[in-house]
Amino acid sequence: MNALTSAHQLVPISSPAMRAFRVTRIVNESSIIKSFWLKPQSEETLNFVPGEYLVFEVPAGPNGETLKREYSISGSTDEQLRVSIKLEESPNGTTYPDGLVSTYFHKSLKENDVVCAFGPTGKFLLDRNSDRPVVLLSGGVGQTPLIAMAHDLAQRGTCQTQIIHACENGEVHALRDELVALCEAADNLDVHFVYRTPTQNDKTNKRFDSEGVVTKALLQTLLPVDDYTFYLCGPGPFMQAMFELLLELGIAEERINYEFFGPATVLKRSGTNATQSETKRDSVMATSNDTQPIVKFGKSGIEVAWDPSLENLLDFAEEHGLMPDFSCRAGTCDSCKTKLLSGETEYISEPMERPAGDDILICCSAPTKNITLDL
Ligand SMILES: Cc1cc2nc3c(=O)[nH]c(=O)nc-3n(C[C@H](O)[C@H](O)[C@H](O)COP(=O)(O)OP(=O)(O)OC[C@H]3O[C@@H](n4cnc5c(N)ncnc54)[C@H](O)[C@@H]3O)c2cc1C
Ligand code: FES
Questions:
Q1: What integer pLDDT is reported at residue 266 of this predicted model?
Q2: pLDDT tops 60 at residue 260
Q3: Is residue 360 in contact with ligand 2, taking CB distance under 6 Å?
Q4: pLDDT in tens, 145-200
């Protein structure tokens, strides 16, 4: 057990990359979302790029076993980070248990407890070097990384920023007043709230700007010029719908940055989702060359030269029609763990914890010699 373990600490620190945080404050933000303010237990400067998340390990399993979940940083002070967590209830009409870790945060975690987390980490990052206008487009609890971005953009004051947030109604809408105050204080930020089913109270108190869902016409009205960088986060169907609307409006794909709060899927134009048999299977055995290591996928019998323009072996396997398990694509969840049957690889970004033995995390590895993977 790590020396940092204290009377309040809920799981021992399992890897050197993990940190202990004390929960200094818990705030009810809406009927379903609570914020947790976290202060690191060690003396250190808190650096994070808006968009990053923490990976928590908490004893939330049915028998108290440790589970890992990612939560985006929604705000910060010099000394503390904030995460805002939605209580994931079981889907209507099912008997599934409520979400394990979100229930743990909402119902078991108390102020002054200590939790362990890895990070800040992630690839969905605000480009702080650009002065291009920005659109922050969120659905539901997908607003959390975008709120951290909004604070940063307000502080810098250089990028014109349009925030568009869609949710059910004012009862579930978290951090509304914080965002309104931020936009009132900053000349470069505007916000537009879209409620699908506003309550009478929302209507009486004019708590929203549009009723319904985000449409092409709304985006055309709110976004008069077309040189924005978009940051998109929300439930899967919302993300796919917004992605398609933006493409219809002529936005270039490379201007659309996004994060999924589940498996880190790649958004595609509708009708272009390639199936396993439609992808590069045709190029099997085709492309060995002298300069790049050969990657052999043992189970599938595919053998191809490594393509250094791809970020990692997970992308490479998908490019060749395989569908390995994945979730975070960032070295934190272990879902992509694969046996390296022969050869050598390197970690191009350090994962949260390197797996033992011959296993590697293919989402953050590349080959350095010819390899065979158990895929
Ligand atoms: C990069 C990233 C950032 C994220 N940031 C945030 C954030 O800022 N805020 C936030 O709230 N969330 C965030 N998430 C989501 C978060 O990590 C969790 O996925 C979420 O809280 C659900 O976890 P859980 O343990 O509560 O639910 P789980 O236990 O994983 O359950 C999820 C859902 O499945 C249902 N379920 C249970 N059993 C079954 C079954 N047998 N079949 C079908 N359904 C079942 C549950 O009722 C629940 O609704 C983020 C995710 C990622 C990847
Ligand atoms: S997909 Fe999560 S560690 Fe690789």
A1: 63
A2: yes
A3: no
A4: 999 999 999 999 999 999 999 999 999 999 999 999 999 999 999 999 999 999 99
CATH code of the domain made up of 134-260: 3.40.50.80
| 254 CA → ligand 2 middle, Å | 23
231-270: burial string, b at 16+ Cβ within 10 Å, e else: bbbbbeebbbbbbbbbeeeebeeeebbbbbbeebeebeee
Q: Find out whether the beta carbon of 46 lies less than 6 Å from any atom of ligand 1.
A: no
The string of pLDDT tens digits covering residues 96-148 is 889 999 999 999 999 999 999 998 988 899 999 999 999 999 999 999 999 99
**Ligand 1: centre distance to CA 27 (Å):** 20
Annotate 309-332 with DSSP letters as a single string.
Answer: TSSSHHHHHHHTT-----SSSSSS
- Would the CB of 332 count as within 6 Å of ligand 1? no
319 pLDDT exceeds 60? yes
Residues of the chain with CATH 2.40.30.10: 18-121
Is pLDDT at 282 greater than 80 in this prediction? no
Read off the amino acid at residue 196.
Answer: R
Measured distance CA(256)–CA(238) in Å, rounded: 14
> CA 156, CA 280: separation in Å to the nearest integer?
44
Atom of ligand 1 at shortest range from CA of 88: 49
Domain(s) labelled CATH 3.40.50.80 in the chain stretch across 134-260
Listed residue (36, 13, 34) closest to 23, CA to CA? 36
Instruction: Out of 55, 68, 335, give the residue to mutate to test ligand 2, the one with the largest number of ligand atoms within 8 Å of its CB.
Output: 335
Architecture of domain 18-121: Beta Barrel (2.40)
Q: pLDDT confidence of 13, banded at 50, 70, 90?
A: low
Looking at domain 276-373, its CATH architecture is Roll (3.10)
- Computed over every residue of the chain, the mean pLDDT equals 89
Q: Is 261 in the pocket of ligand 1 (CB under 6 A)?
A: yes
Cβ of residue 97 lying under 6 Å from some atom of ligand 1:
yes
